[in-house]
Amino acid sequence: MQIWKRNAVVSVIVLFVCVALYLSWSYGREDGEIPEFDPVAGLGTESLGNIGHAQGNTDLLPAEEVSTYFDEARLSRRKARDTALSILTEAAEREGVSQEVRDNASGEIHKMAQYALMEANIENLIIAKGFAECVAFINQDGISVVVAEPEEGMTAADAAIITDIVVSESAIKAADIKIVHVSV
Which has the closest alpha carbon to 183: 69, 33, 73? Predict the structure, then answer.
């Protein structure tokens, strides 16, 4: 009976992860195909620290490259999660695997589902606050939030709004939040 319950829980978690990833992908997708992500492409980003102090370079990107960056980042995140989810699911379902390995795989799948839901919520709330684009990346060390810089420029108040959203939607401390903005 326990195996059936565990399989049901894992199946539900996998379903939630898939739904969250699909929603995140569909909200970020424009009409047409999303190109492959090139992680070494020059992004021309400027980083804001935890309380909004500007650092980094100030290269400008054309608007279409900014939109493409966000689409590519979401696609890359989804592909990485799908691969990790596949590996974890396979490990949990493999015959002869110890219960500890199964429990660890199930825990990681659950954590991935939570991260995906938090990222989607954070992105949607930040966009609702007036930012044109946003993508969030959560891991065990914290979160990186990439936003399109407003026309009037990124301010400490903007960073505070983003930080407040992240802290309220997750258990992440303000010190573990990195805000990066892409200048248009």
Answer: 69
Domain ranges of the chain: 2-182
Cα 29 to Cα 37: distance, rounded to the nearest angstrom = 14
Say if pTM beats, i.e. exceeds, 0.90.
Answer: no
For the segment 89-103, what is each residue's pLDDT rounded down to a tens digit?
Answer: 888 888 888 888 888
Domain 2-182 has CATH 3.40.50.720: no
Could you tell me which of 72, 17, 20, 21 has the C-alpha nearest to residue 43?
Answer: 72
Closest CA to 26 of 15, 14, 18: 18
| Radius of gyration for the alpha carbons in the chain, expressed in angstroms and rounded | 18
Helix 99-128, helix 156-169: angle, nearest 10 = 140
